[in-house]
Amino acid sequence: MAAWLLFLIALYILPSPVVPIHNSSAGGCAIIRPPRDGGIRYRGLTQEQILPVDYEIEYICRGNRVIVGPKVRKCLPNGTWTDMSLHSRCCKSFWTSLENGRVAVKPPGPPVEGATAPRPARLLRLSLIALFLLWPRPSAGKKKLYIGALFPMSGGWPGGQACMPSAQMALDLVNNRSDILPDYELELIHYDSMCDPGEATKLLYDLLYTEPLKIVLMPGCSGVSTLVAEAARMWNLIVLSYGSSSPALSNRQRFPTFFRTHPSATLHNPTRVQLFQKWKWTRIATIQQTTEVFTSTLDDLEERVKEAGIEISVRQSFLTDPAVAVKNLKRQDARIIVGLFYETEARKVFCEVFKEKLYGKKYVWFLIGWYADNWFKIKDPAINCTVENMTEAVEGHVTTEIVMLNPETVRGVSNMTSQEFIAALMSRLGGMNPEETGGFQEAPLAFDAVWALALALNKTVAPLKGRGRRLEDFNYNNHDITSEIYRALNTSSFEGVSGQVVFDAQGSRMAMTLIEQLQGGSYKKIGYYDSSQKNLSWFGNDVWIGAGPPADRTVVIEEYRFLSQKLFAAVSVFAGLGILLGILCLTFNIYNGNVRYIQNSQPYLNNMTAVGCMMALAAVFPLGIDGHHVHRSQFPVVCQFRLWLLGLGFSLAYGSMFTKIWWVHTLFTKKEEKKEKKKQHLEPWKLYATVGVLLAIDFLSLVIWQIVDPLHITVEKFTKEAPKEDLDVLIQPLLEHCSSEKMNTWLGIGSQHITNPDLVLPAGVVYGYKGLLLLLGIFLAYETKSVSTEKINDHRAVGMAIYNVAVLCLITAPVTMILSSQQDASFAFASLAIVFSAYITLVVLFVPKMRRLITRGEWQSEQQDTLKTGSSTNNNDEEKSRQLERENRELQKIIQEKEERVSALRNQLAERQALRNRHRPSIGQNQNHNAPPPSSQTDPKSLLPPPGYPTTDNHSLPPSFSNSSSLYPADSKMSRNHCHNSQIPLLYK
Q1: Could you tell me which residues belong to the region Disordered (predicted)?
Q2: Do residues 442 and 371 both lie within one domain?
Q3: What is the pLDDT of residues 826-850, one digit of tens each?
Q4: How many other β-carbons are positioned within 10 Å of the β-carbon of residue 836?
Q5: pLDDT value at position 799?
Q6: Which residues lie below 8 Å from residue 496, measured CB to CB, with a gap of 6+?
Q7: What distance in Å separates the CA atoms of residue 829 and residue 823, rounded to the nearest whole number?
Q8: Which pLDDT does position 393 carry in this prediction?
Q9: Does residue 490 share a domain with residue 617?
Q10: Which tens digits make up the pLDDT trace of 535-546?
Q11: Residue burial 192-217, b: 16+ Cβ < 10 Å; e: rest
């Protein structure tokens, strides 16, 4: 005891004070050198200098000395420093906490080393009055155990506003209990972490390096708890959190000494998945604040929804401004949205939600339930939305929250029910509105955290005593005491005001989940979920803005587009009439096949044309058949009918006409030197062979197409359409097509749908082949327009039909490809092109024949002659033709002989004239060299043809000799050159 008295009354001389001095010059403050054992931290300066206005200096002391007086001073505009009346000194620390007594210091303030009185020697008198009890360790004395706590009084989650009073209330109850830590008293040393890891780092340093030693750390926010729990292992400290929900904190390798009474945020995810399945949602969206707690929570949610067969269609994140993320949710049609962010960010999010109209009967938001009840009504300068806007935007959202207040009336280890706890907390808060108090819902967790720590410390007293240790012996290098506290916490199990407190292997609290819904501006409980038992307790009082839970996406109604039945019926009538016309023409042609006029038109080719036109017209019917008439499974058969009918019909109809025009051009448009060859007889089998080749090419291509890649049905999707009567429903128009993917690529169409494969009879090879055939047909028709022949007497009508068919096909084919997505227009173009082509062909080829036979009566006379003479008529015609050909050949021989005789006579005449010229004397020639030659005076009678040569009478000569001017010059004078090389043109029929 004497030693204690000597220690308390010992006096130490204080070092020189650290005093900033006044600077009379404007614009700065003067500073003197630092004191002994002290220093000044200000931009590295250690000597007297003039510092600018608003400059701050901080005093620090070396060793174990402490600052007495202001630690920080600021330069004022008047050239002085703040707190000039107070001195700052470096003093040795003084222990004023006695084990069995108390110390009173006069004057008030911390005891300092070397107190001196206000005399010139600058000594300060220090009076210490120590009151001691006479016994060494009385039973009423308790040793203090210090708890270092970080309560977020502000920031993203100001949970310390209610959690700190709750923890202090628990400490008071524990310290008043004689059965829990009877020899110890728990004391709370706390700071405001502002829910900021950076600020928490500084505060953690102060907690660790400022006496007294803390036996346990109690952080709040997940970000702060992550930092504290990761660093605490270096000081052998147990960390017990009351408000950390990050799933990352469940990692025992990273946080070996961490416990929490707040369950992990992943405990929300089984409840969310259960609600998704209850309301039959298979598509959700998420938006999160980019912090570790929400990122890890969302990762866990993705795994759980994937197992449940639920898709996360949109995942958005933001750091500070959620505007872009919310717009993306609206753009991608997010309906069921899970939001993971702190309370302050939640206000920003829902302000943007209001602007984007991402709320109402079509949307459901899932939020975290530990916000204040009126979090959306708190005025926030960071947003520009009114309270009414926010209230409208958040209406109907669902929250999931860990059960933080025991719903049952049970007295736990604190001898309080949950209702009594709330009443006591409200009294301690001094009338503060719970809805405006941050952390009010988590307050029971902070209360139970203190009780869990107290019970765990109480369990360690006996084991430590058995090993000769005490809790007060704890230091940052003692592993044994930390391990004992860890085991005690790990085996904790008691009934608290928040329910049963039990920790799992990762140190996280296990609890039930409360489900609430915002109804009319206030939260209503709608159910509980026990994830351990997979039991959902549903109250059935959920309320929706619409008729019920909204759909997880815009309801899309698939609606097939079908061909207009009126259009189909009208075109079908025309096609049917065209088929009747084809039958009539075919019948007429067959019935009059023996008539010479019909025979000269190659009736078999005309029959093929009529059959081809009827097949093409028959293709109109399957061309208009769609899903309205047949089942989807039968639609490919319809596609094949379209292809084969029109393909073969085109080959027969156009191929037969092309064959006619081809052979007319071949035989009757040759050069003069090939006239003999062109007069050869046209054999019918050549015509049929030509048609057969064209038909075989089409047939082979269709067979290959059918085998390699047959036509099948595909569905084209159009832009969704919103009906006027319901904004939450979209119409998805669909159109069925006949398409052939692989063959289309080979044919040159690519991915283009074949709406009318038989008319358009795909591009590439087929389009190229048919197109060239059409163009060639137009060319041949033009070349033979002036040819006249009896062998194919209707080739001009065939050319006209080819013009019309080619123009219609060349125009219709590309148009139908462009209009393939418009079923009515495409069908109209294709079908009308077929109908008009067939009608024009039949009318042009057959109607003139009918008119001629009927008007002239040729068909009657020919038929009567045929009945009388049988086949003699045809035989007589052939005999007459052969006789005329023989006479023609004989006349040609006679003419050739006469031409040779004329040539010989001319040669003789030329020789005689030359002989006369040689007998004339040369003198006479010189004198009369300018006179005309004697031949010019020759008697014209000498030029007459010799006897026996046919005269120039028009009746006796052929037509080519009727004009003598074609043989002799007009002046009846012929020179040697005229006679030597003259040619007499001969025309004959």
Answers
A1: 859-886, 916-989
A2: no
A3: 888 788 888 888 888 888 888 888 8
A4: 16
A5: 81
A6: 261, 406, 412, 413, 414, 444, 447, 448, 451, 452
A7: 10
A8: 95
A9: no
A10: 999 999 999 988
A11: bbbbbbebbeebbeebbeeeebbbbb
- Spatial contact of 602 and 660, defined as CB atoms under 8 Å apart: yes
Q: Does residue 703 share a domain with residue 578?
A: yes
Q: Is 696 exposed, middle or buried (0-12, 13-18, 19+ CB in 10 A)?
A: exposed
488: in domain: yes
The tally of domains found in the chain comes to: 3
CATH number at residue 349: 3.40.50.2300
Residue 817 belongs to a domain: yes
The answer for residues whose C-beta is within 8 angstroms of residue 330's C-beta and 6 or more apart is: 356, 357, 358
Length in residues, the chain: 989
Residue 603: inside a domain? yes
What is the pLDDT confidence band of residue 731, given thresholds at 50, 70 and 90?
confident
Domain finish residue from 806, 835, 857: 857
* E strand intervals along 87-183: 89-92, 101-106, 127-132, 143-151
Q: Please state the pTM of the whole predicted model.
A: 0.48
Using a CB cutoff of 8 Å and minimum separation of 24, what contacts does 379-386 make?
380/344, 380/347, 380/348, 382/344, 382/347, 382/348, 383/347, 383/348, 383/351, 384/351, 385/350, 385/351, 385/354, 385/355
Note whether 576 and 664 are same-domain residues. yes
Contact indicator for 455, 174 with CB cutoff of 8 Å: no
Task: Decide which of 841, 857, 873 is a domain's last residue.
Answer: 857
Write the single-letter amino acid at 90: C
Q: Which residues pair with 238 in a beta bridge?
A: 216
- Residue from 219, 250, 248, 252 nearest 233 by CA: 252
- Coil/strand/helix, residue 367: strand
Do residues 245 and 371 share a domain?
Answer: no
CA separation, residue 607 to residues 200, 778, 920 (Å): 100, 22, 82
pLDDT of 375 reads: 93
CB 560 within 8 A of CB 627: yes
As to burial, measured by CB atoms within 10 angstroms (0-12 exposed, 13-18 middle, 19+ buried), residue 715 is: middle
**298 and 349 belong to one structural domain:** yes
Helix (H) or strand (E) holding 316: strand 311-318
The H or E element containing residue 216 is strand 214-218
H/E run at residue 889: helix 872-919
> Are the CB atoms for 594 and 862 separated by under 8 Å?
yes
Find out whether 796 and 535 touch, Cβ atoms under 8 Å: no
Residue 615's CATH number: 1.20.1070.10
Is there a domain that residue 664 lies in? yes
Q: Is residue 191 within 8 Å of 467, Cβ to Cβ?
A: no
Do 279 and 185 belong to one domain? no
Full residue range of the structural domain in which residue 470 is found: 143-263+432-508
For residue 113 the two structure tokens come to 């080393």
* Same-domain check for residues 147 and 276: no
pLDDT band at 986 (very low <50, low <70, confident <90, very high): very low
Q: What is the DSSP letter of 679?
A: T
Q: Which CA distances in Å does 129 have to 3, 5, 66, 95, 125? A: 15, 10, 23, 14, 13
